[in-house]
Amino acid sequence: MNQPTPNNNFPPPNTMPKTLATQSVITINAKPLTLCRPVRPDFAQRLAVQHPRLVALNAAGKSQKDAAEALGISVPLLRNWLELLGIKWTNVQPRAPYSTR
What we know:
globular, about 100 residues, alpha+beta
């Protein structure tokens, strides 16, 4: 039933390796930074690499939409990263109210 076929070359879901979220501290510029919750080690490494870019985009006054486009990610994922890293975004553009037509 779960045998790979020409159209389905992925392993069955029960054989996929699972990594626990165990890392709650990352190192940036030789300084430890505590995350707000534990994450997987590969994701922690990705956050450590992207942290300087996030800080630079925030300092440049970019909007969250522009920063997400520059990083090649979605705005909700950017907001998740900001929450994990404890970064407060300075140029938050609130959505306009709904039309009353």
